Task: structure prediction
Amino acid sequence: MPEDHEGRLGLSPAPAGENPAGAHSRGPVLVTGANGYVASWLVRRLLERGFPVHATVRDPGDPARTEHLRAIARDSPGTLSLFPADLLDPAGFGPAMAGCGLVFHTASPLIVRGVEDALRDLVEPATAGTRHVLEAASRTPSVRRVVLTSSIVAVYGDAQDIEHVEGERFDETHWNTTSSARHQPYSYSKTVAERLAWEMARRQSGWELVALNPGLVLGPALSLHTKAEGVLMMRDLGSGYYRFGAPDLEFAVVDVRDVAEAHLRAALNPDASGRHILVSESLGLIRIAQILRERFGSAYPFPTRTVSNSAALMLAPTRGIPQAVARRNLGYPLRFDNGRSRNVLGMVYRPAGESVADHFRQLLDDGLVKAPA
Ligand code: NAP
Result:
């Protein structure tokens, strides 16, 4: 990563004497939602590289949510400062951002199943949070670049949307136009938040925006407190919920460690601009089960066959998935072009099977999935 670009972003080495540990010291960087599944890996990578990390969390005093970050900082050349900030608080991010050249905005509510009030619980915090973070960036002269953690669900709404895509592969030119507060509200919240971010980026010249659009993130978590969708999927597979058959669904998988790496590259690579799909490969649920069976043995109740779409449609509401969502996703392939992230960011993705296996292994080790008796 070119040092001159780091200098332009206000990340130059600190003057001699400011870095008693002798590590390569740099200007501070901000990470919002720093205790999240993805952000924890990003914070770890930044601390390993010697960055002073300003980390916002809702409650810095909650050890269950922050101790893993403090432990990483203790063993790293970088330094960690925790700041309280809520997405809904217009003034929350200013103090943490002071002096930062780079802002990683990862915080956003991630609720896919059983949403009670989509506007209150998803759309409002996602958009208000984006507005508050970017307004703070515009008020903070040191900020040069904002890396936004968007999602592939800002690229497409339902797998069925592929019917309108030439080449049957989604890329960064595509936008989700089919989600709403009623249908796929999480996807809608990510779409409107990313659109808002691009609109705000265009209206100012102090900082540049780079967006990352990860697929379903799998791989080991650094904290036990992750509610990520991948955990639910692994638990369903390991607990025998699908023992009589799995729905014909595909997932575009990316490893959490690769997502963290992509954030670093998006921040430090001078050529990074625009959107970047982060996907290793798409796997069907049955293929995921097959990978797990090969690694962990057939004593686990992993599914061996696919259930019919009509049966899956009937069962969907029992897992908190509305039938309209099931209907527009069952049986459709889900393909993405990850060429931009490979060519511009130089990403080399872990095979998705490795992420699947590492994720399941951790859930077993943590007791979140039970080994067969
Ligand atoms: P996560 O572990 O649930 O992290 C979400 C973070 O957002 C948490 O730190 C959470 O804080 C914070 N947050 C939520 N509501 C907030 C609020 N009102 N004020 C302040 N902070 C708030 O999920 P993740 O998987 O790491 O997600 C990180 C980012 O990646 C999100 O933008 C998500 O949309 C995106 N993404 C995730 C995936 C995936 O498969 N996991 C895929 C694509 C994109 P608390 O801990 O206090 O709740």
